Amino acid sequence: MIKKILFGIAFVASVVACTDDYKDWASPQVIAQPDQVSFGKGSISTVDVIKFADFAEDQTTVKVCGITAPTTTDASFVREDRYVITLGGKTFDLAADGTISKDDFVNYVYATYGKAPSERAFDATVSTWFSNGSTTVKTTSDVFQVKALPVAPFIDEAYYITGDFAGWNKEGALALTHLGDGNVYDNPEFQIVLKTTAANQYWKIIPKNNYEGDFWKTGEDGVVGVAVDGDTSMEGLLTTDNPQAGKIEEEGIYRITINMMEYTYKIEKLNFTEYIYVPGNAQGWAPASAAALHSPNFDGIYTGYVYLDGGFKFTKERSWDGGEYNWSNFIEVPDFLNNGAGTDTNIYCDDPGLYYLTVDAASGKITGEKINNMNLVGDFNGWNNADDAMQMTWDAANLCYTITGVAVTANGWKFTANNAWDINLGSNDSVEPSTILNDLVGGGKNIGVAGSTIKLYPCRTNSDKIYCTVE
C-alpha cells in the first residue's frame, strides 16, 4: 500500500549568502531572501512495515520511503544531489531511491525501542537542498511515519531448569537468574549455578509460562532443549522443535548460561579454591597479608571478615599470580560497594569499616553487612547479646577486637555482631562447651574457656582460621 505526502512549496526569499534549516515545508524557514521562486511539486511515498525477518542475508540497505524530487521553476536554483531523512531525533543519509543503510536503521531501532518483536513507528521527514550559488535553501517534507518490526524468538520473563537432579517436576525445578536489568530482549541471558551428585544427569529448560501453567507444553513458547537426546556438549544450540534432554556427564558444580536471543547454552564446570583473599587500599594492596574468605565446601561461596576502605579486589592466591575477581565479575553487589569512577576494575567501599562478606564467585553475587560492634555473650551475662558492657574495642593496627576486665566462664560463651544472632562465632567442634580457640566458625559451638582478657582475630590475615586468645 503506497501513500503520498506532497512537498507543497511556495515561498519568498531575499538574496543573502547563507545556509539554514527549516522544518515546515509549507512555510520554509529561510534566512537568505532571494527573489520569489516556485518549486513546483514533489512527494514522499510511505512504505509498508519494514519487517526484519524479510531481510536477505547479504542485504546492505533498506527502503524507508519513495521520493518524487521537488523541482523549481527558477533555473538559477539547482537541487543538490543529496537527501537526508530524520527518524525521531536522528538524521541519516538517504539515497535517491529512498534507501538508507540497513545496519544504521536496525541499530537505531534497537537503540530506541530495544529488540522486542513489536511493531515500532518513527515520525520522519525528508530534506534536500537547492542553491543558486550564493543562497542555499533546505526544504523539508511534511511528517510521515516509518514503521519497523524487529524479528526475535520468544523470550519469557524467567526460566527454570529441570532434570534428574531436580525431580523432573515443578516442585524441584530450579530458577535461573536473569543477567542484567530491564527487557529480556535487550538482556537475554539467564544463569544458574547448580550441583550434581551423580554422573549422567539429564536436563531441560522450562519457560515461566510453562512453570505457571502446563509444565510440559511444547511449541515456540514451550519446553526448551537440545536437538539430540543425551547430547553431552558443554555448549551448543537450544531448540523448541521436538526438544530433547541434554546430559551432564560428571558430578560436580556447574554454571549454566543460556542466551534466549541466540538460543544457545554454555555449561562450565567450576573448580574453586578453598580461600580467596582481599588485597586493597586499606592494607597496602598486599595479597600476602590480606584478609581471607573461606569456602569450606569448595563451591565458590566464600565468607569472612575484612576491613575495607576504598578500592579492593579478590585474589585466588596470596599473590597476584593466580587470578582475580574484579568489579566486572559480579552482577549483584550490596549498596555499600561501587565501581568508583569506573576508570579501573577495582571494587570500592566508601564507608570504611569491618564488614562480613559473602562472595558467591560462581553466581557473581556479593552480599554483606558492616560490623558496627562485636559483643561477648554467654552464661556469664544471661546470653544478652545487646549488653553494652560487653562490647569489644576494635584495634585497627592489629585487626582484632579486644576486651579486658570481663569474667567469661567455662559454662559457655560466644561472639555476636551488631547486637543480634545473625552473625556469631563459636568453636569449630562437635561438642560444647568447647576448648577450641584457634578455629572459630559462624554458628559454632559455645566456647568453654574462662578468662578476663579476650582478643578476637576475625580477618584471617596471618592464619587460615578465625581465632581468639583468652587470658
UniProtKB/TrEMBL annotation:
It comes from the Bacteria. Residues 18-133 form the Outer membrane protein SusF N-terminal domain. Pfam families: CBM_1st_SusF, SusF_N. InterPro entries: CBM_1st_SusF, SusF_N. PROSITE patterns: PROKAR_LIPOPROTEIN. Residues 156-268 form the SusF first starch specific CBM domain. CDD domains: CBM-Fa (cd12964), CBM_SusE-F_like_u1 (cd12967). This is Uncharacterized protein. It comes from Xylanibacter ruminicola.
